[in-house]
Amino acid sequence: MVAPGFVFGLVLPLLLRADASADVGFRFASYIDNYMVLQKEPAGAVIWGYGVSGATVTVTLCQDQETIMKKVTSVKAHSNSWMVVLDPVKPGGPYEVMAQQILGRKNFTLRIHDVLFGDVWLCSGQSNMQMTVSQIFNATSELSNTAAYQSVRILSVSLTQAQQELEDLAKVDLQWSKPTLENLGHGNFTYMSALCWLFGRYLHDTLRYPVGLISSSWAGTPIEAWSSERSLKACGVPRQGFMPSDLETGPSEYSVLWNAMIHPFHNMTLKGVIWYQGESNVNFNRDLYNCTFPALIEDWRQTFHDGSQGQTERFFPFGFVQEKQEFHASVESAGAPMRPLCSSAADEIVENYCSNSQQTAILRQLPRLEWLLVAFLPQRFSYLHTCLVQPQMMGFPRSVGIKQQTLAMSLTQGCPALSWL
Ligand SMILES: *[C@@H]1O[C@H](CO)[C@@H](O)[C@H](O)[C@H]1NC(C)=O
Ligand SMILES: *[C@@H]1O[C@H](CO)[C@@H](O)[C@H](O)[C@H]1NC(C)=O
Ligand SMILES: *[C@@H]1O[C@H](CO)[C@@H](O)[C@H](O)[C@H]1NC(C)=O
Ligand SMILES: *[C@@H]1O[C@H](CO)[C@@H](O)[C@H](O)[C@H]1NC(C)=O
Ligand SMILES: *[C@@H]1O[C@H](CO)[C@@H](O)[C@H](O)[C@H]1NC(C)=O
């Protein structure tokens, strides 16, 4: 009773794409799998996959052998894909999701089990986001502290690039899983993202319902790699340039990570995104960051909203990390790309290093832009990989109902050890 996605996800590269030929098998999208979290009410979760063009597909949500709802659709020609939007479901679970494809007299059934409903967050950016739980202070105790978090489910996307927007992921490193020592601390810069995990864990402590975390990040990458062609064009970003800094260790080719690691999620219903990136733009298209960053937010919001048939909110919360500039004293300019990232909520606090009021004004116009972490301990562990100590949580309290104090305190425990620098 193993769904094909499970087999594909753990071991084999997912080779199927939207333009796959007509004999493509009946399957769920790569990240519709056992142990996943689907977005809870008031949104409707999207379930999609591939099948044989013209076939009828029935998706059934069951709990304890009882049918909760059924949705019927058919497989589209050309893309060989099918998609249904479930009715809104309250947080909780577990559920089983079944999909049946009927073509003539042939009847194929796929099943995934232990599916929960809650909030689904996408975590993206460069090394500060990719850094794993095994790399933080007190890693041993953080890694063993999983029993209470079995309904925080995690997925980690493989490092992949593509020249065109992919409909589905090419590969995942960690398919939807419950947190364990092994999959939270798999290795350095593999999975699971420490910031993503700590964020989700404290959401769960506060909200007391399931949380799904998707980590899709790559160290040493500029914003251009995570931006669609549309948003780069809107900002007049010059054609591919050479990345000058030694710090750029990941791919810098434009749009390749958007295409392979983010776009495949645009049909999924999500709660929001958290983002930690900027260092790789210190010496690369830095003066354009005040356009490329807001443009990325706008483009992701629009694309995710459209792709989920309006289920992902048009202005979903977008949280980002603001580094305190003095933290970067040794690399005078390193905080610069972050400096434009100022929001009204935090003005008093960031006055000192949020110097360009014109840039501030641009970001202020974006709705529901959330300030995730604005300040760090002045202690310098590393000029690049900041220590997540004593952050001031701004913004998120407004959108997800978390008390500022709670999250600020909790993230205190997530301080990267940084001995590898
Ligand atoms: C398809 O198979 C499932 C069980 O695997 C069954 O419940 C369903 O009735 C079948 N549908 C048709 C149309 O045969
Ligand atoms: C991973 O990083 C930690 C420090 O954060 C270091 O002690 C350990 O040796 C590294 N492991 C590997 C396999 O590189
Ligand atoms: C962005 O910053 C650059 C350099 O500081 C400036 O010339 C430009 O006017 C800014 N763009 C906007 C839209 O404010
Ligand atoms: C995903 O969304 C896009 C944009 O709305 C749409 O063209 C595509 O068909 C959707 N995918 C599926 C599987 O329905
Ligand atoms: C690590 O654990 C010790 C003992 O529980 C605690 O005192 C310390 O504050 C922790 N460090 C961090 C950075 O959380």
Automatic annotation (TrEMBL):
What is the scientific name of the source organism?
Delphinapterus leucas (Beluga whale)
Under which name does UniProt file this protein?
A: Sialate O-acetylesterase isoform X4
Q: Where is the signal peptide, in residue numbers? A: 1-22
Q: Name one GO biological process term.
A: carbohydrate metabolic process
GO-annotated molecular function? sialate O-acetylesterase activity
Domain Sialate O-acetylesterase, by residue range, is 119-304
Q: Name the InterPro entries for this protein.
A: SASA, SGNH_hydro_sf, SIAE
One matching Pfam family: SASA
Which superkingdom is the protein from? Eukaryota
Its organism's taxonomic lineage begins at: Eukaryota, Metazoa, Chordata, Craniata, Vertebrata
Q: Which UniProt keywords apply?
A: Hydrolase, Signal
